[in-house]
Amino acid sequence: EVQLVQSGGGLVQAGGSLRLSCAASGFPFTTSAISWFRQRPGEGLVWVSSTYPDGRAGYIDSVKGRFTISRDNDKNMVYLQMDRLKPEDTAVYYCYKSNTNFRGQGTQVTVSS
After folding, report:
1. What one-character-per-residue DSSP string does 71-98 give?
2. Which of 5, 64, 72, 112 allows an S-S link to 23, with CB 3.0 to 4.6 Å?
3. Taking residues 32-39, what's their average pLDDT?
């Protein structure tokens, strides 16, 4: 059974940092891409970042230079380090097994101005 369990998130002031974690199980993690999406209130899901099996990473332009995605293949974990947070980063964040509908439970990130 595919499972993605998220942790982290919370409330932070603008300029602060948070780290999201995603624990994956039930599929071959080392050969799988994992993505982070976010959903702002009243809006649709938006892709934020992905980590690929070959070590590549991708980011939406609005977070480049502020967010860093990483993976630990020994622990089947993916992390999203979010620095210099802005109020517009406020959203519910989801980790997904890329190109599937399998996702974590969602984590609220709130950035106050």
Report:
1. EETTTTEEEEEE-S--GGG-EEEEEEET
2. 5
3. 98
